[in-house]
UniProtKB/TrEMBL annotation:
It comes from Nannospalax galili. It is a multi-pass membrane protein. Its main location: membrane. This is Anoctamin. GO terms for biological process: plasma membrane repair. The gene is Ano5. One of its GO terms (cellular component) is plasma membrane. InterPro entries: Anoct_dimer, Anoctamin, Anoctamin_TM.
């Protein structure tokens, strides 16, 4: 009894203290309290009077819903529409008292501090002073002491460090608890089924919005002595673009958002380009200038001299192709295969460290699986015993889901087919316009050894890449809507099942959408062309595409550059401008009467909604970028640099929009990045194969090495260009493919290893072709075995959880046992 009396007296004294410090004159537009100035607003609902015929039904649902909320112990305060800026919106402010917080904190397994940690934080490592400019001040990086924590229980409150009940639970935990109640609160029974959840009320426009409040204005601190504006502190130390070089203040982000945008940042490494004799021979007027090349298209295209592509091949003259296609590319590809393993292994350790620091060590997936989606509960008519909880819960038989699974599968297959058909359409476009480009870009100058910046292949490739990027953006927009709708119709049981299903659909689509054209250029273009006189044709109309005379690698690099940089620019501009424009327009519409108070809840109501899938799209964007950095990095060594620049910019853009342009999201709980980690591991394995094939089949490295060691008489690359080009007799051209204009040349050259026209097996692959092919396959096998061996050794040697984290977990368990 004395303990109960002392606790009641303590609460009463705290109430009086806060009540006296609060002045009614300070009730401003930034207030985050009820009218009494004591009870904090944990959540806000909004609605308007509906003049349609279902207005009475919506009003009855709201009355029932709010009545049931009060029954759970929540306290509500309603702001009349006459007090709102637009004169038509009602706001329902919700406060969770102490009794509600302690009850649901135990239900949700929220961890709270039981004692200050006696484990010292890691000291500065050797040479850490070099990272001084990127470090945050200690008061910002560690704003609070480090505590040992335990799952909260209302029956053992004396174990926890409760100094002030009003501030014991952080605001992110408070709004998470309120949202948990809102998502499971019933609002009536219709057609024999119980209607529950705020999401259903939002979908039916019974309520317009449901959101927790920001702490105040992001550009100024709080004027109330008892309230700390965490939004202002976070914006000051995280969202300012002048802090682009600073580390992220995770200990400030966690208590405010309880979520984190984990961008994959990549180190920089670039191979040093070296010029080879091969490119020098192309530019030599006495070698490349004397080689007449076969036409690149039928009838319209003319013969041309090899040295007209010198600017794409020679380092001294620009050398775009050889900048990326050189001997160091082999070592760079192997390095990146090892790097991606190191990255993922270090990420597992970083994730384990965050898991401990963010109190998620004991968090199990079963806790998420037991939390059913309200939509699932509402749609289910059957129940069965849960073998874990031994309670009856909603159950949907498989035969009810089969039609939607079938529809989902058909939709995904149709989407994949649509993507592939769009890629084929772009290929058809390139084949169709190539002759047009060739007709006005080729002239007599091509036979006079005039160097050109843009060849017909390059012009077609660049325009086709730009068109392909536009098609990618359009298809992304439509498929996003379709995939979200079809996943919802599958009626997933839990939020985890919903996100996993949506992740699979979206990733498969975007993987094909962004990478299909790159796979085509890397592994198919120029590989099945045939040879003069016996070319292969697409749909028996268009001649198959050939690579640039310097190879397909430069075209793959151009394709990756346009798609990757275009995606990054479009994404950052869209993320920054879209909420800014929409918020400006909503504020302009809302502020119709300047004499009324534009309150804190109205200001947040006019912001954009981050939504439950906001972080999902951030992960998706990061994983797609990870693919650009790993899958094709052998052909695009600048990808890590562009990824790093994009991450630096996007971190600040995301921080800025989360603190200034979006409503505060509801706190979420997860111990890892979930299925995204499996996707990253799958892409890492695939990247080893793709880079090995790029080096072997797309670049010109292996053929040069075979010539150097097996066919060169001078143990050098001298004569390589002539050796790599086969000879074709012009009179063997069929009538439908021969150039219209007659020339004095008797032969022309083309890229391949085939017998000359005077050979008994003319135009058949010669022995050097098979030697080169064997060397390519050997290189692929050797490279994959080296990288995979290192991956397995590293995964075996490096523990998933760092040693110091294991020690902290054991020390925390011992501290709890002592208490």
């Amino acid at each position: 009894c004395p303990l109960v009396v002392s606790q009641s007296a303590k609460r009463f004294n705290l109430f009086l203290k806060r009540r006296l410090m609060f002045q009614r004159s300070e009730q401003s537009k930034d207030s985050v309290y009820f009218r009494d100035g004591v009870r904090q607003i944990d959540f806000v609902l909004s609605y308007v009077d509906d003049v349609k015929r279902d207005a009475e039904l919506k009003a009855e649902r709201r009355r029932e819903f709010e009545l049931n909320l009060r029954k759970t112990g929540l306290e509500l305060e309603i702001e009349d529409k006459m007090n709102s800026e637009d004169g038509r919106t009602y706001f329902v402010k919700i406060h969770a008292p102490w009794e509600v917080l302690v009850t649901y904190a135990e239900v949700l397994g929220i961890k709270m501090p039981i004692g200050e940690s006696d484990i010292t934080r890691p000291q500065n490592l050797p040479l850490s002073y070099m990272l001084g400019p990127v470090k945050l001040p200690a008061t910002v990086k560690y704003p609070h002491p480090e505590y040992f924590t335990a799952q909260f229980t209302r029956h053992r409150q004396e174990l926890f460090l409760i100094e002030d009940e009003a501030t014991f639970f952080p605001s992110s935990a408070r709004n998470r608890i309120v949202y948990y109640i809102l998502s499971r609160c019933p609002f009536g029974v219709e057609e024999g089924k119980k209607k529950i959840g705020i999401e259903r009320l939002l979908n039916s426009n019974t309520y317009l919005a449901a959101f927790p409040l920001h702490d105040g204005q992001y550009w100024k601190p709080s004027t109330v002595p008892t309230h700390v504006n965490e939004r202002y502190i976070l914006h000051k130390n995280w969202a300012r673009f002048s802090y682009f070089y600073k580390e992220q203040p995770l200990d400030l982000i966690r208590p405010y958002f309880s979520c984190l945008d984990l961008s994959l940042q990549t180190p920089l490494f670039f191979p040093e380009p070296h010029c080879s004799l091969g490119s020098a021979e192309i530019c030599d007027p006495h070698i490349g200038g004397q080689m007449i090349m076969c036409p690149l298209c039928d009838e319209v295209c003319d013969y041309w001299r090899l040295n007209t592509t010198c600017l794409h091949s020679n380092r001294d003259g620009g050398g775009f192709n050889h900048l990326f296609d050189n001997e160091s590319t082999v070592f760079f590809a192997i390095f990146m295969g090892i790097w991606v393993t190191l990255f993922l292994e270090f990420w597992k350790q970083r994730q384990a460290r965050l898991e401990y620091e963010w109190d998620l060590v004991d968090f199990e997936e079963e806790q998420q699986q037991l939390q059913l989606r309200p939509e699932f509960e509402a749609m289910c008519k059957h129940k069965k015993m849960n073998p874990i909880t031994k309670e009856m819960e909603p159950y949907m038989p498989l035969f009810h889901r089969i039609p939607w699974y079938f529809a989902s599968g058909v939709t995904v297959i149709f989407g994949m087919a649509l993507l592939l058909s769009s890629m084929v359409s772009v290929i058809v476009y390139r084949l169709s316009v190539f002759a047009t480009f060739a007709s006005f870009m080729e002239s007599e100058a091509t036979l006079q050894s005039v160097k050109t910046v843009f060849t017909p292949q390059m012009a077609t490739s660049l325009s086709g890449s730009c068109l392909n990027f536009i098609v990618i953006l359009i298809l992304n927009f439509f498929y996003d809507k379709v995939s979200a709708w079809i996943t919802k119709m599958e009626i997933p049981r839990t939020y985890q099942e919903y996100e996993s299903s949506l992740t699979l659909k979206m990733f498969l689509f975007q993987f094909v959408n962004y990478y299909s054209s790159c796979f085509y250029v890397a592994f198919f273009k120029g590989k099945f062309v045939g040879y003069p006189g016996k070319y292969t044709y697409m749909f028996s109309v268009w001649r198959s595409e050939e690579c640039d005379p310097a190879g397909c690698l430069i075209e793959l690099t151009a394709q990756l550059t346009i798609i990757m940089i275009g995606k990054q620019l479009f994404g950052n501009i869209h993320e920054a401008c879209q909420p800014l424009i929409f918020n400006w327009w909503r504020r302009r519409k809302a502020q119709t009467n300047s004499e009324k108070l534009y309150s804190r809840w109205e200001q947040d109501h006019d912001l954009q909604v981050f939504g439950p899938l906001g972080l999902f799209y951030e992960y998706l964007e990061t994983v797609i970028q990870f693919g650009f950095v790993t899958l094709f990095v052998a052909s695009f060594p600048l990808a890590p640099l562009f990824a790093l620049i994009n991450n630096i910019v996007e971190i600040r853009v995301d921080a800025w929009k989360l603190t200034t342009q979006y409503r505060r999201p509801v706190a979420a709980k997860a111990h890892s990045i979930g299925v995204w980690q499996d996707i990253l591991y799958g892409m890492a394995i695939l990247s080893v194969a793709t880079n090995a094939f790029i080096v072997a089949f797309t670049s010109d490295i292996i053929p040069r090495l075979v010539y150097y060691y097996a066919y060169s008489n001078s143990s050098s690359l001298s004569g390589y260009v002539n050796n790599s080009l086969s000879v074709f007799l012009i009179e063997d051209f069929p009538n439908h493919s021969a150039p219209l204009e007659k020339t004095d040349f008797t032969t022309c050259r083309y890229r391949d290893y085939r017998n000359p026209p005077d050979h008994e097996s003319k135009y058949v692959h010669n022995m050097q072709f098979w030697h080169v092919l064997a060397a390519k396959m050997t290189f692929i096998i050797v490279m994959e075995h080296i990288v995979f061996l290192f991956k397995f050794l590293l995964a075996w040697m490096k523990p998933d959880v760092p040693k110091d984290v294991l020690e902290k977990i054991k020390r925390e368990s011992a501290f709890l046992a002592e208490g």
